[in-house]
Task: structure prediction
Amino acid sequence: MRIDDYFDLCYCVFGIYPFNLNCTISSEGKRAAEVREASADESLTLNRLFHKSGVALAALSPLALILPTHAALPVDLILGVVIPLHSHVALNYIVTDYVPKNLRSGARFGVLAATLLAAAGILKLNLEGPGLTGSVKALWADKAEKKDEHH
Result:
């Protein structure tokens, strides 16, 4: 597998290149590449997804709260993807704006790790627990209702 194939695979799966490559041809005809850290906020595709995910969050969040908890699983699963994606791109904007250049690679790795951890946690909550909607509704449920749900 060539390195270009690896980058294309990462782009297809995750929507980002692991590194942004700026390739140039030297005077001797050799190909040189300058490697920079991956940044989700520089990707046109992820920027479009970021804006669409904001609309999806605005529409799906109230819908999830209106639906009965047992009927909200499809919405919970969609939110379980949309929330980490939206947060990932937004946090990369923050890294670009506020983190010094020499620390950005580590910060972006931390953002990616946090995104993957959040997505895994939300998926586990949705599949093995009450789901996002059930968890949020439980914050405002009466204590009597909580006891009835557990027994």
Summary: The CA atoms of residues 17 and 33 lie 14 Å apart. The longest strand covers residues 19-25.
